[in-house]
Design goal:
Number of strands of chain A: 14
Order of helices and strands of chain B: HEHEHHEHEHEHEHEH
CATH superfamily of the largest domain in chain A: Thiamin diphosphate (ThDP)-binding fold, Pyr/PP domains
Number of helices of chain B: 9
Oligomer: heterodimer
Distance between the termini of chain A: 47 Å
Number of domains of chain B: 1
CATH superfamily of chain B: Thiamin diphosphate (ThDP)-binding fold, Pyr/PP domains
Order of helices and strands of chain A: EHEHEHEHHEHEHEEEEHEEHEHEHH
CATH class of the largest domain in chain A: Alpha Beta
Number of helices of chain A: 12
CATH topology of the largest domain in chain A: Rossmann fold
Distance between the termini of chain B: 28 Å
CATH architecture of chain B: 3-Layer(aba) Sandwich
Shape of chain B: globular
Strand content of chain A: 15-25%
Strand order of the largest sheet of chain B: 2-3-4-6-5
Largest interface: A-B, 28 and 31 residues
Structural class of chain B: alpha/beta
Helix content of chain A: 25-40%
Shape of chain A: globular
Number of strands of chain B: 7
CATH class of chain B: Alpha Beta
Strand content of chain B: 5-15%
Number of domains of chain A: 2
Chain lengths: ~350, ~280
């Protein structure tokens, strides 16, 4: 038998509207990690700045990166505390192991890279050097899910599925700049290891408008609504909040329960909210439909005896296309328009 | 030392006798299971004797002592050897020998930090120890703690790419508080290490990565003592490697001659025979 190599695209097919708001063609590089909606407030490097602030009073904080400080906002820390910053080079395995060693010596290390590299390449090291002994290493990873148009090499669409199975590890998918800034001290005060997905650069600020405070292991209701209950994490919470406003105008009331801690999941709050009669439960995540927030919630509801209509907004179980992020978010239906369309089709 | 705890370096017991005791403890543990990594334990006994009774600064009654030299066992299956040494050092009690590898034992077959006093890390997934050692060395330097970190790794472990990430990293960060001990017994699970990825010239490889390298007979106490002293006293700001050529099953000729020695089965009557051979050659 001869193996047949299939190519994703056999020829170039121009899309109908490959243009941005200013009429320019959308390019891949211009879209990396940019999640702004027009007019949205943004905060620069919320992770790096929060870490610098906290490090003033916490001399145990040190940081490591594998040649990606600029792309994980850790360069801010490196500039402020050069002697507490370790450039480990392009070597994720030793970065993770060394972080474990620093934790053994009493430090609280933050290790940063891209989510693909931490989850796929360094898994065994996170598992055996850190999680097995519950060492307080905080692994902070940029480019979660579909936040780059570079294709599967950079798109960590299954990182949560990979890490959810690891005992002792707390898994966090924050929504915006406010949450990232609040999460940093919470992570440091948490005694065990944490994997946190990161939005970097100019990060939108959404939760500042709500009465919200991040707590590890807590899901929080951001708005009420009688027809749909969104349960979401990461930047999908921004998307469902926007979608809820659109749907409301069409008479569809949407509640939004934000659940940034994927593990341990806030099963009590989720089951309680989902059990309220008459609502379609829609989970929304920037992650493959396999093994992420949606399936975690499905399991929680089954175990809790909450049997309600249930749908998942998630990325397909595929290696995703390369391209411009707005195009891809529409294509995979995780844009505001995609969410609205999906919900309407389910009601 | 003024807190009453004892430092067992420099006691009157000879290092040869310490190595003999380690071998004897290992044989007793091997007999509990009837099989296992006894070949590695007998082979590495001299290295452990020199480590724990000559080189390492440690306190048997305080395994977490902040000023101790750290000894990291990457190769979890060598736990039998380390337990044997820790028993001889008084870190683990002798009467737990009979629990080796049993349910609820503090001495599982593969070494884990949470189970045993004196076991610094969880080994077993090969290629982890040296990277953890890099982080501990960085941490000790940050704390201005002059302790050394030793990492005992195997020749087979040199096949793991992560080991070489750590080798490069240690050199890049000028970790002169790191001493890697490579047990070169030329035996892996599937055959000879040199038929796999552990090809010569080994010293040149480590040296090319910026390490100070020595290669010694790992079953010669005088050579080991000299090598450990040289590694500790080196002035250069570079990490140090000691490649120890050892013989699997050293000291028990009828086991040494076995072809497959990674995980050996020893018949019930052979344990007493092995002990008898050892007992006949007890050093002073």
């Amino acid at each position: 038998m001869t193996a047949v190599l299939t190519r994703r695209k056999s020829k170039y097919t121009p899309r109908s509207a490959p243009v941005g708001e200013d009429g320019e063609r959308l390019t891949t590089s211009a879209m990396i990690a940019s999640l702004d909606a027009e007019g949205r407030e943004t905060v620069a490097a919320p992770f790096g700045n929060a870490l610098v602030e906290l490090a003033k009073s916490r001399p145990d904080i040190v940081a490591l990166t594998a040649d990606l400080s600029k792309y994980t906002d850790l360069h801010v820390f490196a500039a402020a505390y050069p002697d507490r910053f370790y450039q480990m080079g392009m070597a994720e395995q030793v970065m993770i192991s060394a972080a474990a060693g620093l934790a053994r010596e009493g430090f609280t290390p933050f290790a940063t890279t891209y989510a693909v590299f931490a989850s796929r390449r360094a898994y065994d090291f996170v598992c055996m050097a850190i999680a097995e002994e519950s060492l307080p290493v905080k692994i902070i990873c940029a480019l979660p899910g579909l936040t780059t148009g570079y294709g599967p090499s950079h798109q960590a669409t299954e990182d949560i599925a990979i890490f959810r199975g690891m005992p002792n590890l707390t898994v966090i998918d924050p929504c915006d700049a406010t949450e990232i800034a609040q999460a940093v001290p919470a992570l440091v005060n948490h005694p065990g290891p944490v994997y946190m997905r990161l939005l970097r650069g100019n990060v939108p600020d959404v939760l500042g408008a709500y009465d919200y405070s991040f707590e590890i292991g807590k899901a929080k209701l951001l708005r009420e609504g009688g027809d749909v209950l969104f349960i979401s994490s990461g930047f999908m919470t921004m998307r469902v909040l926007d979608a809820a406003k659109v749907l409301e105008k069409g008479g569809i009331g949407c509640a939004v329960l934000h659940s940034p801690t994927i593990k341990p999941l806030d099963e009590e709050t989720i089951a309680r909210e989902a059990a309220k009669a008459g609502r379609l439960v829609v989970t929304a995540e920037n992650h493959t439909i396999i093994g992420g927030l949606g399936e975690a919630i499905a399991g929680c509801l089954m175990r809790s005896g909450v049997h309600v209509p249930f749908r998942q907004i998630a990325l397909p179980d595929e290696f995703l296309d390369a391209g411009a992020l707005p195009t891809l978010h529409d294509q995979y239906r995780i844009s505001v328009g995609g969410v609205v369309e999906s919900v309407r089709s389910w009601l | 030392m003024n807190d009453g705890s004892r430092d067992i370096r420099g006691s009157n017991t000879s290092l040869e006798r310490r190595a003999w005791e380690i071998r004897r403890n290992a044989l007793l543990m091997g007999e509990v299971q009837g099989q296992g990594y006894i070949g590695q334990a007998l082979g590495i006994a001299d290295v452990l004797a020199v480590s724990y009774f000559h080189a390492l600064k440690h306190r048997p009654d305080d395994p977490e002592w902040e000023a101790r030299d750290r000894f990291l066992l990457s190769i979890g299956h060598y736990a039998i050897a380390l337990y044997a040494a820790l028993i001889e050092a008084g870190v683990l009690p002798e009467d737990e020998i009979e629990t080796y590898g049993m349910d609820d034992s503090r001495m599982p077959m593969s070494g884990m930090a949470a189970y045993s006093p004196g076991m610094e890390i969880t080994g077993g997934s090969l290629g982890h120890g040296l990277g953890i050692a890099v982080g501990m060395c960085l941490g000790l330097k940050r704390k201005e703690n002059p302790a050394f970190v030793y990492n005992l790794l195997s020749d087979g472990e040199l096949g793991e790419g992560s080991t070489w990430e750590a080798v490069m990293s240690a050199s890049q960060h000028k970790l002169d508080n790191l001493i890697a001990i490579v047990d070169f017994n030329n035996q892996q699970a599937d055959g000879k290490s040199t038929d796999m990825l552990c090809a010569e010239p080994l010293e040149d490889k480590w040296a090319a990565f910026g390490w100070h390298v020595q290669r010694v007979d790992g079953n010669s106490i005088p050579e080991l003592v000299a090598a450990f002293d040289a590694a500790r006293n080196l002035e250069a700001s570079q990490p140090r490697a000691i490649i120890c050529q050892t013989t699997m099953c050293k000291g028990i000729p009828f086991l040494e001659s076995r072809e497959i020695t990674h995980f050996i089965r020893v018949e019930a009557d052979e344990w007493a025979k092995a002990r008898g051979i050892l007992d006949a050659e007890m050093p002073a």
